[in-house]
Design brief:
Layout: E1 8-16, H1 25-39, E2 43-63, E3 66-82, H2 84-96, E4 100-108, H3 149-160
Antiparallel strand pairs: 1-3, 1-4, 2-3
Length: 164
């Protein structure tokens, strides 16, 4: 195990592919993330179990030379202690993993080994409804009579006359 005084605390948030069976998600986290941390001499201090969630936007990832689009995935997080030199290689390995869509690793201050669970559970997103534009037919305008030049001049004179 690495020297505990040199180790820093990190948190990784990750997004896994949605087509994993629910019972295989924990195994995938263990294989793709935890095993790499433990192999480097690090230790996992706490974790938030992955939960299926709808993404704010579609993410495209190349898997087996095909562009694959994801609109949802399993989101989870875990905190761990590791040497700073390990993080760069760890992130590079995760970028090549076909099970991990995205991940973000951040450094935390000492004493923050535990993940604080959210105060309220994430509310499921509303089902997307197709956007419809309401089409309103314009009202039929009244047909206006066409004035001759003389009639137009008379109307203008009436408007211009000084008020008595």
């Amino acid at each position: 195990m690495a020297n505990a005084e040199e180790m820093k605390i990190y948190e990784i948030g990750y997004l896994l592919v949605p087509y994993l069976p629910a019972e295989e998600v924990a195994k995938s986290v263990g294989k793709s993330i935890k095993s790499k941390i433990l192999a480097s001499g690090g230790e996992v201090t706490s974790e938030m179990a992955p939960v299926m969630t709808r993404l704010a936007y579609v993410i495209t990832m190349v898997i087996n030379n095909k562009h694959t689009k994801f609109s949802d995935g399993y989101f989870g997080a875990l905190r761990f202690k590791a040497l700073p030199a390990f993080i760069a290689t760890f992130e590079a390995e995760l970028a090549k993993d076909d099970v991990v869509i995205r991940s973000l690793t951040i450094s935390l201050p000492n004493g923050s080994e535990s993940i604080v669970p959210p105060r309220r559970a994430q509310a499921p997103r509303r089902e997307e409804k197709p956007f419809e534009i309401e089409r309103i037919m314009p009202e039929k305008e009244e047909e206006k009579t066409v004035l001759t030049v003389e009639e137009l001049d008379k109307e203008i004179d009436k408007l211009v006359e000084p008020a008595a």
